[in-house]
Design goal:
This protein is an alpha+beta fold and 216 residues long. It is built from ten helices and four strands. Strands 2-1-3-4 form a four-stranded mixed beta sheet, covered by helices on one side. Bound molecules: glutathione.
Length: 216
């Protein structure tokens, strides 16, 4: 059984959720290994030396392999199980292209914005939030336009690009205060399709832990 390292008591963490949702969609069992991120476990030299030098979750242990970076983990699992990887070489390349865009711009600005607003230890700086908001709007506009004439990101059916990109979009909208479904209706419709994939469960149902009150 695959071991998925997730952040302890912090099911707010969307990158591990991407992998958990994907494993469920593949029908593959997995066990959580808790990482005490909130008490600094990922910042210790020991954890970095033994588990992930980048200091991040998720980490997947699959047999003798230990993999990090959700995009790479999704690619590995898709290839291994022959599912959701795209049907042709062009589609496979296209999934990689969107996963790179996701990691740089689509997930990362939104995840940072949401974290600062919902869970940050200090009140978010309005200038930083406004800058992030501009970056988010730019990335969301690109994706909304791409989805205008297709139901999924690549090839008319769900692929790992979709699993990667939707990971933070199932959390309650109060956490980010960003109503993406209203601003970007194509993204709203796509997220609704992703919710219909067998194995889908909301982040707070798949990952152990509990909801935290929004702080700011
Ligand atoms: N690009 C990475 C991002 C992973 C990431 O940032 N994970 C968060 C938890 S959701 C983390 O471990 N953050 C620790 C840190 O940035 O110090 C991925 O997709 O796996």
């Amino acid at each position: 059984m695959a071991l998925l390292y997730i952040v302890q008591r912090f099911c707010q963490s969307g990158n591990p959720y991407k992998v958990a949702f994907f494993l469920n969609a593949l029908g593959q069992p997995w066990d959580p290994v808790f990482v005490d991120f909130m008490n600094g476990a990922t910042r210790t030299d020991d954890w970095r030396a033994s588990t992930n030098e980048m200091g991040e979750a998720p980490v997947l242990e699959d047999g003798t392999r230990r993999l990090t970076q959700s995009g790479l983990i999704l690619g590995h699992l898709a290839r291994k199980h022959g599912a959701f990887e795209g049907r042709t070489e062009e589609e496979k390349l296209e999934t990689q292209r969107w996963i790179l865009f996701d990691n740089h711009k689509f997930t990362s600005y939104f995840a940072t914005y949401r974290f600062m607003k919902a869970f940050g230890s200090v009140a978010p700086d309005p200038a930083i939030m406004s800058w992030l908001r501009g970056r988010m709007d730019a990335a969301f506009s690109v994706v909304d336009k791409h989805l205008q004439d297709r139901a999924f990101m690549v090839g008319g059916q769900p692929t790992i690009a979709d699993f990667s990109m939707c990971g933070y979009l199932f959390y309650p909208k109060e956490e980010s205060g960003y109503d993406f479904a209203e601003r970007y209706p194509q993204i709203g419709a796509w997220v609704a399709c992703m919710r219909g994939i067998p194995g889908w469960e909301a982040p707070y149902d798949i990952l152990p832990g509990g909801r935290l009150p929004v702080r700011w």
